[in-house]
Amino acid sequence: MFVLHQPNIDYCFYIQLTIVQIKLRRTIVAVRKQSSGKWLCECYPAGREGRRVRKQFATKGEALAFERFTMEQVDNKPWLGEAIDRRKLSEIAKLWYNLHGQSLTAGERTYKKLCLVIEALCDPPATTFTAKDFAHYRDKRLSGEIYFSEKWKNGAEPVTVNLEQSYLSGMFSELARLGEWSQPNPLENMRKFTVAEKEMAWLTHAQIIDLLAACSRGDSDLPLVVEVCLSTGARWREAENLTRSQITPHKITFIRTKGKKNRSVPISKALYEKLTTRGDGRLFSECYFRFMAAVENTSIQLPKGQLTHVLRHTFAAHFMMSGGNILVLQRILGHHDIKMTMRYAHLAPEHLETALQFNPLATMPSGDKVAA
Predict the structure, then answer these.
(1) Which residues form a coiled coil (predicted)?
(2) Active-site residue numbers?
């Protein structure tokens, strides 16, 4: 359950003040009394550069009513001037989810995160939202002034706010492609934080034995989920959500994957027999937190932010160290882009051998070589 920290009052006031200033620039309306005693309504429905509408009335009430009528006409009849888009960010996010987000594998999770971010931004009208607003927001995220979980009270990581920026920017871009957003993308030219590549941990054979022993203590689901991940390179949720229909003789077919493409990976006869004895329907219960506890009961130390994904890294690392083909690994892991798989290329034996063979000391003329 997400807990939203109360947004800073001064920050929300700044957002609302900005909204008022932009509205004043966009829609110029004036109702004033003339020297003749009549009331003049003078307005620019499309902004200062647009068409002017003027009309006199006997009373102030009539002038104000005409002003309201004129502005409503602009919204309903575009030929009277460009309609003012009064949709809030939350409405834009809901529209994105209905028209596009719900078709994505992680669409619902992304939409929930968008809602949290938008609430922290005080849900301004979408047309008034700027890169400056997000810059101030992410500063408060990094400092911990705004947080969505007690876990991140001390501040979010730069990679997290980069992801939130991608969600918002992608929302505007997709709605523009669908013809539902005609304004510029407010975050289009905003640069993300530069983030150093994370350490990619993988387990040794001794650590694998230690981990499987810890997972097997009083648990029938957990060790088998771990074994599936280590045998196939599957993501944790792909393994945890397996059903009997996905198991065929000596093969697992992963469906509803992150990349939207099904893929089949061979498995050993022993693993196949273990899986087929578990009955029909879903094979495992959720065991993420049991895995976390099992890791804590071992001597294994993982980099910050890595837990279940270490199993996928371990499969790929051992595959390459044993001389596996990088293109085959790409298909097994289900990577769309070979660049993702190339993270493991340096572990290939031939890669290491070329470093030994072609370093500058090794390529010196034989008479000039430096003694080892």
Answers:
(1) none
(2) 235, 258, 309, 312, 335, 344
Considering the domain architecture, whether residues 252 and 327 belong to the same structural domain is answered as: yes
At 95, give phi and psi (nearest 5°): -65, -45
Question: 321 CB contacts (<8 Å, ≥6 apart)?
Answer: 347, 348, 349
Domain identity same for 118 and 248: no
Q: What residue ranges of the chain have pLDDT lower than 50?
A: 1-3, 22-26, 80, 372
CA dist 367 and 364 (Å) reads 8
**CA–CA dist 238, 212 (Å, integer):** 19
Residue 362 within any structural domain of the chain: no
Q: Are residues 240 and 299 in the same domain?
A: yes
Residue 267 neighbours by CB under 8 Å, 6+ apart: 228, 231, 232, 250, 251, 252, 275
CATH of the domain at 277: 1.10.443.10
The whole model's pTM is what?
0.61
Residues belonging to the chain: 372
**What is the C-alpha to C-alpha distance for residues 333 and 235, in angstroms, rounded to an integer?**
9
**Statement to judge: residues 32 and 122 lie in one domain:** no
Same domain assignment for residues 149 and 214 = no
